[in-house]
Amino acid sequence: MAALLKWAAHMGMSDLPWPPPTPSISSPVEPSSSSSYCLGRTLFVSYFSEAGGRGLAAARDLVKGELILRVPRKALFTTDSAMADEKFASCVKRHQHRLSPTQMLIVCLLAEVEKGRCSRWYPYLVQLPRSYNTLANFTRFEVQSFQVEDAIWVSEKAVAMARSEWKEAVGLMQDLDLKPQLLTFRSWLWASATVSSRTLHIPWDSAGCLCPVGDLFNYAAPDEDSSHEMSDSKQETTSLSIQLLEHSSQEGTVHDADQPDGFMQRLTDGGYEENMNSYCFYARKRYKKGEQVLLGYGTYTNLELLEHYGFVLKENPNDKAFIELKAEVCTSSSWPRDSLYIQHDGVPSFALLCALRLWATPMNLRRTVGNRVYSGSIVSVENEVLIMKWLAKHCTDILARLKTTIGEDSMLSSTVDKMIGHPSCLSSTVVLPHMSELREFFEAHGLTMEVADYIGMPVKARRSLERWKLAIQWRLAYKKMLQGCVFYCENLICCLSSQHV
User: How far is CA 438 from CA 3, 412, 431, 473, in A?
Assistant: First the structure.
């Protein structure tokens, strides 16, 4: 990591306040103790056990909207940067019409890896993870562990797509004369997951770019609280003039009153800025010194996070549970199918409620009540009670059809956590309902529960265990959303019934 940060500084990356404070004779600015590194004034690398690994922490108190990291264009790994080699570029151009921009970037990454220490990006490449938990890496056993047909279908599609894209790109990789180990599907999965989970948007290439150091930020899900906070901050700063950030000459800190209004209007936490010829990152909120600084990649469900980034959130305000619906429900309104879902807190989406209300209304009355339904009003108490009873029963039936219960999944998830955190935990574990699935996992890897030891497991089995754990966590969250919907419907039925009486 130290070598990476030194290389990054050499490439022009910096977390210094912008513009940097101007030294004067009366108040000279003391040089940073980490001046040979790109971090140290605003951010530093730290380990966050609750977040699953390393990330970036605040080296001082930060203000929302403050510029916290600049990565110049020359340090970004893009298809363009790889094409600087004329021989490489001429070979790539012969295949360019058959491959997507993302496939091109994946091939460029593998070609750069082959250069080893001769690569300009070697200090960055050696810091990349050796494996990923994105859906394309899931085995059949792990995919089936989702239990829910929608998640299984998405997973199988991700695996099939990865294999198809690899086959399409093999010809180019052979023409580039890459080493045999870099031509394998396993290497393609690694490079593809690197691109999927770590690229950032740039205006000149839809494939995006790999951003050294900038990809150390961990994810923060957008939620209503952050939206309100952004809105409040915008109101606070509307009267301020647009000016560059001013910094304390002694501390180098940024004051709230000096933030330009433009910072509060950003839709993301960073982006490529032509005027600075750099990818710039901004604090999404106020941070105290030592607190982990997070980056909002966008709004994702847990399944989408797993597909593209290889992790799930225990509490994801943007999660959704899609359930099987009758064709008549889906066609009863103009809402698209992907808007009919149950929210993370168990409340049906607005669109789902509209569709159910219209579905439960006789065909000849739907046009009459349509405006009322689309404005969010109920049709009648009887109509609302009817759809709540139907939805509660439907969710209950779905939960009953799944192989395991919420309680069993909770125990299994806890057991797997203990296996990873405390390798010898199984020796004292009693036989529980979830143990049959645990036994299936060990048998799938040629192991037995009696001698199971996480540290002693083959690397392949350990990585599989981590992916399996993610599948269990996903299905547990899915079931809790359905259970939450049942509670929501039952409570609403009670309220409506008492009011109607």
Answer: 41, 8, 11, 15
150-181 core/surface letters (b: 16 or more CB in 10 A; e: else): ebbebbeebbeebeebbeebeebbeebebeee
Do residues 66 and 258 lie in contact, with contact meaning Cβ atoms separated by under 8 Å? no
DSSP code for 237: H
Decide if 157 contacts 170 (C-beta within 8 A).
no
Give the CATH architecture of domain 1-21+36-76+211-224+266-304. Answer: Beta Complex (2.170)
**Secondary structure class of 340 (helix, strand, coil):** coil
Question: What pLDDT is recorded for position 149?
Answer: 95
CATH number of 320-500: 3.90.1420
Largest CA distance in the chain: 84
Q: Report the candidate in 196, 45, 57, 206 with the shortest Cα–Cα distance to residue 134.
A: 196
- In 74-118, which residue ranges form alpha helices assigned H by DSSP? 79-82, 86-93, 101-114
pLDDT at position 453, please?
Answer: 64
Q: Write out the two tokens for 333.
A: 């309104």
pLDDT in tens, 297-342: 788 999 999 999 999 998 899 999 999 999 999 998 889 999 999 9
Distance CA 323, CA 478 (A): 10
* Structure token digits, residue 302: 């847990």
Cβ-contact 148, 475 below 8 angstroms: yes
